[in-house]
Design a protein that fits this description.
Elements (H helix, E strand, L loop, with lengths): L8 H4 L12 H4 L12 H9 L8 H4 L7 H9 L3 H9 L5 H7 L6 H4 L11 H14 L15 E5 L3 H12 L3 E5 L8 H4 L8 H14 L2 E3 L10 H6 L5 E4 L5 E2 L12 E3 H10 L19 E5 L3 H12 L4 E5 L11 H9 L3 E3 L2 E8 L5 E14 L5 E5 L5 E4 L2 E4 L3 E2 L3 H5 L25 E3 L2 H4 L4 H19 L5
Parallel strand pairs: 1-2, 1-4, 2-3, 4-16, 6-14, 7-8, 7-14, 8-9
Antiparallel strand pairs: 5-15, 10-11, 11-12, 11-13
Helix pairs in contact: 3-5, 5-6, 5-9, 6-9, 7-9, 10-19, 14-15
Bound molecules: flavin-adenine dinucleotide (FAD) and iron/sulfur cluster.
The site of flavin-adenine dinucleotide (FAD) has 42 residues, from helix 10, helix 15, helix 17 and helix 19.
């Protein structure tokens, strides 16, 4: 049993939240090093002392995968960091990743009782601390696998949904092979989220762990083109397929001038920077659009837009501006990213909507015509909707415009498997409890079912799929 916290409740509640050490904004806005440096052991112990061990912990209720946070924090308090990491891994297969990228303020920390009057326990920072402790001290205990069942599962897509399903299925004794369209494994974790938020080495280590557990990986395979789901099942004899292909097709604004040179999707911009190593500015000739000494705008208010604008700043943009049609209160980006972006000198143009891009005679972008907006009634998303203010048009000088207004499903797999039911927007229809699709033996989860969501929800879907696939393979009816 972890050591019990004997400090009186009122004294625990007086302790201030331990801040996360960060790289200096002036330094970090010129490099791709990780911004958050992680807690030292003494700081983690101090932070764990703040937890008042609630009888009904709101933190657990608000964690999408029900991590036993109270027990994890108690184990940190008692100094048994490895036991804390093991407890965390019971419900969360990728804690070093979620500790860095989860929107904790809307999840576990949002439910922490201490947040009602002050600052919640820094659950995300503690999660990252124990996962890093386990990782960097080389004491990651790999679970053992059940005896081989003789069944095999194909997983399509190596994002958090695919990886967490792979980790569970291999332990259940099934053969698991992950097919990935790109040349690197990890999905958005490697091609979307930049190095300064989530170092690639951490994702690579998780993938290597899965490899050591016996998961097979095959990159550069576009399922639906190189091979179809039917071929995987009929010719390659997979007993089940889990489709976890994400929602990586970028959306555009649909305004005049979007075809001009210098207008890009955030998805393409980030993929090029992340996968073509433009973030290693010292060693690689930047193989992306030159942002140096240019005026860059990024349109959107989510994590993708925030990552793109902070990346453009690091690539040397003269001005890096986020243009968003609502106000900061409606922005879906994580609060920490907004804070970091402001510190790094990103300009925020809220309540602004580009209505046309303008270019020179050679087809290069020179400016964006924008409208000022005001907030009207709440829309279907529950957020107040932006309404254009008549006569408020103005011009912004722009050399590079990056569109980060969301993504949608790539219809490739679905079009090669007509018996796979999809929604009108091309997402795969899957039972929320079992992840079963309309096609026998085929399961689906993550962003390809829900639309763009979060890493932890994709992981949760992967784990649910693994349990459901196991049930099907070990005798369950379809
Ligand atoms: C820039 C960016 C920043 C984000 N920041 C955060 C954050 O801070 N916190 C957070 O919680 N969430 C964040 N998200 C959202 C989160 O990353 C996603 O919700 C999550 O990655 C979805 O996981 P997934 O496994 O469903 O799909 P993905 O991560 O998209 O992985 C799908 C994989 O499938 C592959 N694939 C697609 N089609 C095929 C095919 N036909 N054949 C083979 N392989 C295929 C893709 O190449 C990809 O590798 C962010 C998203 C983006 C784009
Ligand atoms: S809600 Fe906050 S204080 Fe209560 S158990 Fe969870 S982390 Fe501790």
């Amino acid at each position: 049993m972890p050591e019990t916290n004997t400090l009186p409740l009122k004294d625990r509640m007086k302790i201030a939240r331990t801040p996360m050490p960060e790289l200096d904004p002036e330094v970090r806005s010129h490099n791709f090093e990780e911004v958050n440096r992680g807690l030292e052991a003494a700081a983690a112990l101090q932070e764990a002392t703040r937890c008042i061990a609630c009888a009904k912990p709101g933190c657990i209720v608000d964690c999408p995968v029900g991590v036993k946070i109270k027990e994890v924090v108690a184990l940190v308090y008692s100094g048994d960091f490895l036991a804390a990491a093991a407890k965390l891994r019971e419900d969360n297969a990728l804690p070093a990743i979620t500790g860095r990228v989860c929107p904790q303020e809307n999840q576990c920390e949002g439910g922490c009782v201490l947040g009602r009057k002050g600052a919640p326990v820094a659950i995300g920072n503690l999660e990252r601390f124990v996962a890093d402790y386990e990782r960097t001290t080389g004491q990651l205990g790999l679970p053992s696998n059940a005896p081989p069942t003789g069944k095999s599962v194909a997983i399509v897509g190596s994002g958090p949904a695919g990886l967490s399903a792979a980790g569970d299925l291999i332990q259940m004794g099934h053969r698991v092979r992950v097919f990935e369209a790109l040349h690197e494994l990890g999905g958005v974790l490697v091609y979307g989220i930049p190095e300064f938020r989530l170092p690639k080495a951490i994702v690579k280590q998780e993938v290597d762990n899965l490899r050591r557990m016996g998961v097979e990986f095959e990159t550069n395979v576009v399922v639906g083109k190189s091979v179809t789901i039917d071929e995987l099942m009929r010719d390659e004899h997979y007993d089940a397929v889990f489709v976890a292909t994400g929602a990586g097709l970028p959306r555009f604004l649909g305004i005049p001038g979007e075809h001009l040179n210098g207008v890009y999707s955030a998805n393409e911009f980030l993929t090029r920077v992340n996968l073509m190593r433009a973030y290693q500015v010292a060693d690689y000739d930047e193989p992306v659009y030159d942002c140096r000494d240019r005026d860059v705008i990024v349109v959107g208010g989510g994590n993708t837009a925030m990552d793109a604008v902070r990346t453009s700043r690091r690539l040397g943009a003269r001005s890096a501006t986020l243009v968003y049609r609502r106000s900061q209160a409606e922005m879906p980006a994580r609060a920490e990213e907004v804070k970091h972006a402001r510190e790094e000198g990103i300009e925020f143009r809220m309540l602004t909507d580009p209505i046309a891009f303008l270019g020179d005679e050679k087809g290069w972008l020179t400016g964006a015509r924008c409208m000022k907006m005001q907030l009207g009634e709440a829309d279907a998303s529950g957020r107040r909707s932006p309404v254009a203010i008549k006569g408020s048009e103005f011009m912004l000088p722009v050399n590079v415009a990056i569109i980060g207004v969301g993504t949608t499903a790539n219809p490739l797999i679905q079009s090669s498997a007509p018996d796979l039911a999809t929604t009108p927007r091309n997402y795969i229809v899957a039972d929320p409890k079992t992840t079963r699709t309309s096609k026998r033996g085929v399961f689906a989860g993550g962003d390809i079912v829900t639309g763009g969501a979060t890493v932890i929800l994709a992981m949760g879907a992967g784990r649910k799929a693994a349990a459901s696939i196991d049930e099907y393979l070990t005798g369950g009816e379809w």
